[in-house]
Amino acid sequence: MMTTTTIRTKRPRWPWVLIGAVVVVVVLAVVAELVARSLVPGIVRDKVVTSLGLPAEQPLDVAVGGLVVPQLLGGSLDDLRISGSDVPFGELAVDADVRMTGVPIRDGVDGGPGTATLRLDAADLEALLAGADVPPVLAEATIALDEPDVRLAKEFPILGATVPIEVALTPGAADGDLTLKPNGAQVGGVALSLDQLAAMVGTEVVAFPVCFADSVPAGLTLTGVVVDGDQLVADVDIAAGLLTDATLQQPGTC
After folding, report:
1. Which of 248, 231, 230 has the alpha carbon at shortest distance from 239?
2. Averaged pLDDT score across all residues of the chain
3. Could you give the CA distance from residue 145 to residue 165 in angstroms, rounded to a whole number?
4. Measuring CA to CA, which residue among 245, 243, 254, 204 is closest to residue 114?
5. Residue in 100, 70, 82 with CA at minimum distance from that of residue 46
6. Can you say whether residue 102 is alpha, beta or left, with left for phi > 0 and alpha for psi between -120 and 50 degrees?
7. Does the global pTM surpass 0.85?
């Protein structure tokens, strides 16, 4: 009887070694991404607080879009969102929603620009108006925000009597300033044209600018304003380098 001998061929191990190496690399990459995503928001928050001179305990929510590790290797964050409530800028305390691109995270990397939406209440607007050249008929008026208008109300002496006057104004932005343009008026609850109101109080009621730049860092430029409900919503452009250029972090001028 003939005996058949089976020769076993040893399979090469390199494919399994390669697969194992790939798995290890993937796991390390995932771990690195999780660690970076947990640490970077806190680092960014601290940088913003320090750069803009905010209170050390100021709450800020920070979110980084996309994969974080490749951005860290590149030296900048491509999509950064920062939001906070009651963020202090001078006499203002605003709710802020910021979006920035190309934010540098190491020296030698240029930072990109961004945009922000700032929400102000009537008290903030009152602080801005305190230093404005307001028409006499509107000086020391009570301020209210009533979509879509800013409303200024006061009692005005006419012929020995005190008459309540309310003027509705449309907010806007020009050359970085907030602007307020009268669009209607009521005297004692009766609607009057602005010409009629001017004739009654003996002074012209005209549009006027309100300085905004000196209440925020110089790197912020007001581009648009609307009244949303009982808030004044300001759209702002953020200059590149805000978080690294000390001159852009100082209050602006009008």
Report:
1. 248
2. 86
3. 16
4. 243
5. 82
6. left
7. no
